[in-house]
Amino acid sequence: MRILLTNDDGIDAIGLNALYNALKTEHDCTVVAPDGERSASSHSLTIHRDLSFRKTETGYAVSGSPADCVKLGILHLLPEPPDLVISGINNGSNLGSDIMYSGTVSAALEAAYLDFRGIAVSLSSHNAPREFYDKAAELVLQNLEKWISLPIGSQTVLNVNYPVKAPYIGMRYTKAGINLYNDRFVDGEIAGTVRLKGIAVAHDKNDEDCDVELIKKGYATVTPLKLDRNDYECLSALQRLEKC
Q1: Strand 84-90, strand 194-200: pairing
Q2: b/e per residue, 85-116, with b = 16+ CB within 10 A?
Q3: How far apart (Å, rounded) are the C-alpha atoms in residues 82 and 224?
Q4: Is the peptide bond prior to 89 cis by the omega test (within 30 degrees of 0)?
Q5: CB atoms within 10 A of CB 166
Q6: What angle separates helix 130-148 from helix 14-23, to the nearest 10 degrees?
Q7: What pLDDT, in 10s, does the model give residues 123-177?
Q8: In sequence order, which ranges of 65-129 are alpha helices (DSSP H)?
Q9: Strands 219-226, 170-173: parallel, antiparallel or unpaired by DSSP?
Q10: How many whole angstroms separate alpha carbon 239 and alpha carbon 231?
Q11: What is the pTM of this model?
Q12: Exposure class string for 215-238: b at 16+ Cβ within 10 A, else e
């Protein structure tokens, strides 16, 4: 299978390296990843400046965002379209409402937009030892054929998170929960600049069967996310108003 690998931590990130080394044993893998850190870049695209890229041993390093990398890889760089796009392994979790900020998840969603299957993979904690990246990569390799055989089409991506703080006890398919933060801005290192600081806030908005809670117990979580963001229940209610 031809796989395009990308991430938002940059071409030299440990997670991307672990994923490439695991998957290349059974698949034809090409890396198209940012040339540096692009965390929390969400689904941004570079449209007001030129993109640059350079060849590497495993593929290409690109000056843009994770979504740029997927679009450039599929539409311009790869000689043949991939069968699958995998983004990760991210240095830190992409659980619950953090998904909307994630460059890792957005790369998989860009694949969906281009009508290709996408998977995002993350660890539940930052700067974990290499062994956890290897374990997460092995989990992907072991389940890959099963996941891509699902009759879900290309408009749904799978968001995978692997536990670090709790011992791994299994894998659960589940929904995304909610994360809340006490966000504030503090003075930056240079006069006239600020930096965002966020501290997680305890809350009761999650039930136990969601990614945010299950990962704490030691489960790897797999959450299906749709490219379609329409709220059809609300749309139906609004359309009923038209008839009043």
Answers
A1: unpaired
A2: bbbbbbbbbbbbebbebbbbbbbbbbbbbbeb
A3: 20
A4: yes
A5: 13
A6: 50
A7: 999 999 999 999 999 999 999 999 999 988 889 999 999 999 999 999 999 999 9
A8: 66-72, 103-113
A9: parallel
A10: 12
A11: 0.94
A12: beeebbbbbebebeeeeeeeeeee
Q: Residues 186, 188, 193, CA angle at the centre, nearest 5°?
A: 100
11, 12, 151, 188 from 56: Cα distances, Å: 9, 11, 35, 35
> For the segment 90-125, what is each residue's pLDDT rounded down to a tens digit?
999 999 999 999 999 999 999 999 999 999 999 999
In angstroms, the CA 183 to CA 191 distance is 21
User: Which amino acid belongs to residue 15?
Assistant: G
Which one-letter DSSP state was computed for residue 76?
I
Dist. CA 53–CA 27, nearest whole Å: 24
Longest dimension (CA), the chain: 63
